[in-house]
Amino acid sequence: PKEIFLKHYKMPDYFFDTVDLKFSLGEDKTIVCSRITVLPRVEGVSFPLILDGQDLKLVSIKLNGEELKKEDFVLDSRHLILASPPTKPFILEIVTEIYPQNNTSLEGLYKSSGNFCTQCEAEGFRKITFYQDRPDIMAKYTCHVEADKTLYPVLLSNGNLIEQGDLEDGRHYALWEDPFKKPSYLFALVAGQLISRDDTFVTRSGRKVSLRIWTKAEDVPKTAHAMHSLMAAMKWDEEVFGLEYDLDLFNIVAVPDFNMGAMENKSLNIFNSKLVLASPETATDADYASILGVIGHEYFHNWTGNRVTCRDWFQLSLKEGLTVFRDQEFSSDMGSRTVKRIADVSRLRTYQFPQDAGPMAHPVRPHSYIKMDNFYTVTVYEKGAEVVRMYKTLLGSSGFRKGMDLYFKRHDGQAVTCEDFFAAMRDANDADFSNFLLWYSQAGTPLVKVTSSYNSETNTYSLKFSQQVPPTPGQPVKDPMFIPVAIGLLDSNGNDLPLTSVFHEGLLHSISSNGHPVSTTVLRVTKEEEEFVFHDIPHKPVPSILRNYSAPIRLDSDLTDDDLFFLLDHDSDEFNRWEAGQILGRKLMLSLVADYQQNKPLVLNPKFVNGMKSILCDSSLDKEFIAKAITLPGEGEIMDMMEVADPDAVHAVRCFIKKQLASELRGEFLTTVKDNSSAEPYEFNHHNMTRRALKNTALAYLASLDDLELTKLALNEYKSATNLTEQFAALTAIAQNPGEARDSVLADFYRKWEHDYLVVNKWLTLQAISDIPGNVKNVQRLLNHPSFDIRNPNKVYSLIGGFCGSPVNLHAKDGSGYEFLGDIVLQLDKLNPQVAARMVSAFSRWRRYDETRQALAKVQLEKIVAANGLSENVYEIASKSLA
Ligand code: HT7
Ligand code: ZN
C-alpha cells in the first residue's frame, strides 16, 4: 500500500469549473453520466490529467464531444489518465456503470433499507464516477436523478430543486442545482421511500428556509427533537458567530446503514438514524444530548467545512476540530457548561490520550496516511477542538470572534490550511502566538509538572513549570509547546484571592483588568522550564491550576491530598472541583491496585468516603455535576497510568471502591433515589435530565451490592419507568450481577423492544460490555442472534465494539477475547473495511500489557496482516500496531 505525505502536496494542474451529473438508478445497475468543464491551471502547457476511480465500469469517454479511443487514455484499477489533454478549457463527458446494490462498504453510492444514498467523504466520490477526488477541486454542480417512481418517490440532491417530472415506464426525474462551489466529498444523492417532517426557519435577515427531516414513514414522530435541535443550532450560529444559512432549503435524511455518525453534504445532510430518531420510550437522555450535538455539528459545517473547506485531507482538523469546538459550545449554551466540559475532557482522556501514547499516535494535522478514513480520529476531532479552544482562552470571546470573522472574510469559497486559520486569529488580534503551531505538528500529550513555594517575607507565591512532550512514532524528540495555563489562588476560606501582578522573565506584569484585580489569569508557558511569581499574596494559597482544563495536557502538581479535598470543597472553578475529586480517585485507585497486586487487604480511605458524601449531599450543586463528581475514573484511565496495565487488578479495585462506597453511603444513595424519582411525563430539559442522571448513578451504586432488597428496588424502577433513560439505567444496574434477575430482565427487555433496532442495539451493547468472566461465549452466541447483522455498522459497533469496551474480557488471560476479535476483523474486512479498521484498533495498545497477553495479541495481529486480500484500512492499523 502507498503512503501519502503532506510534504508532497502539489496544486492541481487542472481545475473543474462546472460538473453536470446524470444518474439513472436501477435495480441491476446505475448509469452515471458526468459532464465536466475543465480549466487548465496554466494555459498552453500540457500535463497529464489523472482522474481517480474505483470499482467503476467505464462505458464511454468524450473530449469536446469526440469519443476517445482506447489508445487516448490509460485505465487502471484506481485511475483514468489522459496523457496530454488540450491546453485550453475543454469539456469531458464520462459514462460509467456502478452497482450500488452490491456495495457493502457504504462509501460511494449504496443501498440502505431499499433506498439509495451516498457517502463521499473522504474519497467515496471516486466510487461514483472518474474525478479529481480531492477537496481543493471546487466546482458548481447540477444533478439530474431518474428512477422508478413507485420504488423511489423521493429524489434528493444538493442545492435547489430546479425541475421535476414524469418519464416513460413509470420512471420520474428531478433536477437539482447547487449554486455554491463545493468539493466532491460534499456531493450527495438520496432516492427512496421517505416522508418528511417539515418546518420553517426565518433567518435574521428574513430569509425563509424550509427544513425537512426525512425518514421512513413510521419514524416521522421520532424526529421532533432533531427538528428542534436544528432550529436551535441555526439560531445559535446567528447569535454567537453571526453566521446565517445561505439557501432556501435544508434537508436531513436518516438512514440505518452508515459508517459514522452523520455527514454534512451541502444542504443535504445524511445521518445515521441513531442520531436523528428519539422518543422518550426509545431514546435516553444521552441520546437526546448526542442528537442535539451532532445535528448542531453538521449544521455548523455549512460555514466551517463547506463555505471554507480543506485544501487537502491533512488539514481535516481545520474543519473538524473547529466544528467540534463549535458543537461543544452550542451544547454548553443549551445545558450546563461545566457538565459538558467534564464530559468532553473525560472523552479526551478516555480515548484520545491512549491514542496519543500508542502506535497510531499522530499530530492534529497528520504528516502521512495510507487510508484517510483511518484519520477521522479523536486526535483530529477532539484534540483539534482543544487546540481551537486554546485560541479562545488566549484571545477571549471577542478576540476569538474577530479571528473567526477575519477567517471567513479572507477565505469564503476557498480550500485552505490550518496556517490560514492560525493567521486569521493572529492578525485579527495582533497577537503573538510564538510556537503555537506546534500543536498541529507534534503528537503526544505534553506532561507538565508544577511545583509551588510561598515566601511570607516578600508575600510572593512561585509556580515553577517544566514540560515534556513524550516521543511518538516518527517523532523521537520534541520542542516545548505553547501552553495556556489558567490559574486561580484560593485563600484559607476557599475564596479566590485577587491577582494583581506576576513576575516572569525579569519583568513584573500587571494582570489586573481595567484597574481591577482578577481571580483567574492565563499564564503562557512556552519553555521547557519556567517560573511565574505572583506578588501581593498575603498568605500561602492553594492553587487551582489549569482551570476549565485550559490545555490538553497531563498535569502533575505537588498538591497534597488535603489541598485536593479543599479544592473539591471550595474551588470557584467547578471544573477544577470535579478534577480535584478525580485526582484523588486516581491516586486512591493506583495505590489500591498496588495493594491488590501484593495480595494486601483493600481498605478504603475514610476521607475519600467523606469527600464523596459531602458532594452527594450538597444540595447547592447541579445534580448532574454531582453524578459526575461521584463517578470514579474509568478503568482505562488508571491502566494508562501504570507501567504494565493490569486489567484484572484495576477492575477488582474499581468494583471494590464502588461497593464500599455503596455500602457506607447506602442511606444517602437510597434517599437520592427516592428524592429524585418522579412520575411526571418525560421532558428533555435541564431540571429533569439532571435529576435522572443523579438518580441513575445512585441506583447503579446500590445495585452493585447485589443484595435482595436493592435488586428489588432496581427491578421496581425498571418496571415503573416511563422512559428509556430510567428503564435502561435500571436494567444496567441489575445486569451488573450475574444470576436469575439479570437473565429474566434482559429477556423481558428484548421481548418488549425487539421491533425497534436502535433499542435492541443498546441491549446488545449491555451484554457485550459485561465484565462477567468468560463473556466472550455470550458475545459469540449473540453473533447468531436474529437481531444481529454484520453488514450493519451500528450493530457491529454495539456488539463487537461493546465487547472491546470490556477490559476484563477483551484482555482475558487465555487469549479468547483476542482470538474472537481477530477472527471477526477478518470477516468484517471483506464486507466493510472502514468498520473493520475501527474494530482492529482495539488491539493497538497490546504492548501495554504483560508478556503473556502481548504474545497472544501479537499472534492475532500477525494473522490479520498476513491475510489474503486485506484492505488498506485494516493493513494500516494492524501493521502500525505491530511496528
Ligand atoms: N465529516 C463527516 C465525516 C464522515 C466520514 C468520514 C469517513 C468515512 C465516513 C464518514 N461519514 C462521515 C462527519 C463529521 O465529522 O461531521
Ligand atoms: Zn464534522
From TrEMBL:
Domain of life: Eukaryota
Peptidase M1 alanyl aminopeptidase C-terminal domain location: 561-883
GO MF: alanyl aminopeptidase activity; metallopeptidase activity; zinc ion binding
Keyword Acetylation carried by entry: no
Domain Peptidase M1 membrane alanine aminopeptidase residue range list: 226-436
GO biological process: proteolysis
One Pfam entry name: DUF3458
Name recorded for this polypeptide: Puromycin-sensitive aminopeptidase
Species for this entry: Amborella trichopoda
